[in-house]
Amino acid sequence: MTGGIDDPAARPRAPEFALDPLQELNGKGLAAIHRWYLRDLGAVGALMGDIRAGLAAPDDLAPAVRGMPMAQNLALFGTACGQQCLALTNHHQIEDGWLYPQLEVQGNAPLNAVLTRLRAEHRMLHGLIEDLAGAADALAVDPEAGNFDACARHFAALDAAVRSHFRYEEDSIGPALGYYEVRV
Question: pTM above the 0.85 mark?
């Protein structure tokens, strides 16, 4: 894919839509769903910060990422990361298979270019999720600080990419959802 997730030159612009307050709610619904994911990603980041600060051991991260039974202080990571990655993947599948097609049938070429880009970004995000999972597997085999650092880098890359993608998606298709009366 040309350009990274947050490369403005690689991101087509959506058309402008004049919306009434009721129509604006559909885009706000998408944003609300995104906030749930961002809250969970923030919790994962906070736990990784605790591990980096020595409040938890680096080798404690692997069982959480792998979804194994965890100590009380790792329950948050397992919920937020293991299930979060699966939930984010499912969220993108719903958008790609149900939400975006409802917008594509409107025949709006600039909007359809945005949808094509969003799908490409979903594939890129899934790659970042796989990178994090691979780093967590390496940490499970060898819980040394360098492997934790690799996990932290992969998590930071995923977190930044998800946040950028959500902003672009909300700004680009949020108004279209209201204009074309697509319910979220």
Answer: no
How many C-beta neighbours within 10 Å does residue 89 have? 14
Contact indicator for 178, 25 with CB cutoff of 8 Å: yes
**Helical segments of 14-144, H only:** 21-52, 61-65, 75-77, 83-94, 100-104, 109-141
**pLDDT tens track for 127-177:** 887 788 788 778 777 878 888 899 889 989 988 998 999 999 999 999 999
Q: What is the CB neighbour count within 10 angstroms for residue 93?
A: 12
What's the CA angle centered on 125, arms 107 and 96, to 5 degrees?
Answer: 30
Of residues 104, 109, 66, the one with CA closest to residue 86: 66
Cβ neighbours, 10 Å, residue 54: 8
Check residue 177 and give left, alpha or beta (phi > 0: left; psi -120 to 50: alpha). Answer: alpha
Tokens standing for 184? 């979220």
The Cβ-side half-sphere exposure at 7, using a 13 Å CA radius, reads 11
